[in-house]
Amino acid sequence: MTVDVTRLGNGLTVATDHMDGIETAAIGVWVGIGARHESAAVNGVSHMLEHMAFKGTKRRSAEAIVDEVESVGGQINAYTSRESTAYYLRVLADDVPMAVDILGDILQNSTFDPKELERERAVIIQEIGQCADTPDDIIFDHFQEVAYPGQSLGRPILGSHDLVAGMTRDDVAGYMADNYGADRMVLAAAGKVDHDALVRLAEDAFAGLPRLGPPSGDVARYRGGDRVEARGLEQVHIVLGFDGIAYGDPDYYAASVLSSILGGGMSSRLFQEVREKRGLVYSIYTFSSSYKDGGLFGVYAGTGEDEVPTLMPVLADELGKVGRTVTAHEIARVKAQLKAGLLMALESTRARSERLAQHIMVYGRPVPPADIAARIDAVDAAAIKRLAGRIFTGTSTLAALGRVGTLAGLRPFAESLKVAG
User: Fold this and answer.
1) Catalytic residue among 38, 50, 145, 318
2) Is 50 among the catalytic positions?
3) Per the confidence metrics, is the pTM higher than 0.85?
4) What is the pLDDT of residues 379-401, one digit of tens each?
């Protein structure tokens, strides 16, 4: 494994992770702009821009973009998150120049044709509707909104039906012009790639990108609270969470270990106690989501209406006691799981290109896998106890969707957590 990084004159970072014995390459541009950088008036514009980037440039039609990639057996896709937007391809090594040319073209020469915009607007509105009809998906938007009320971090990545319906070509094109600067981007590739050759390709393909400086945006201000929506569903979907851990926090890796101990798999505490022993849920898991300046730690559970009053005290008990009762065996098992996942990801060109780009955007440099493994290994029982007390004694966020009319059966855990933590 050979990782190289070069910063071009306009600020674009070019990073490669060469992998021996591989005949393909995953290559993409990660832009340090996402939903949290939007104003309330254009919430959803980052996601719409991601869709529209593939809908035609000055040199290529929408059909030509896809045809050029798929004619050589390649794959092309994109995604939007709260802090970044990614455009990526997977191709044979000989087709890397074509991939770079397409990425440079869509990020500098997109035309945002009005007819294509209308068609894609309809597609995104369908996507919003599908999300709203998927309770174990939309519940996380509700949770995010309550955790960060009145903030860009609390708004949905997709935006709303009304905002997307009213978004204009100028909104999308203007957002790209104002936010897509070379110094906010990382061109990352993993697989059979030559770093110097990629740098030369990038210098030509991205020459028109301006330097814009660091993006502005709201500072994350966790608040917490409750949101319960009654809906005629077969299950009650619950997300219970707390103020979490930022990327640069010393407890970042401890949070991953704690999350896995509680709800990271079939051997986790919540799965064993809540599902296997008590049969209260079909699905239950924990998550630790990080941002540059904050984060969220939480539990998702899908349960029956009649099981809610029993489930919530059990969750309270498990969260409240984990810091006091965590065992050396649990910590060792989870460390092995996390390090195995880290090593397995090394076999994927896409995972390695994405990790490389994300590390550069967050930390300013690649982080070697050995360093990550060492930080995981450094987590001990004292760290778990300290972190559990830090997280679970704070203000909670509760979102519930289903046959729940009041908070009566959902809130009793709050006081017990503050005592137990």
Assistant:
1) 50
2) yes
3) yes
4) 999 999 999 999 999 999 999 99
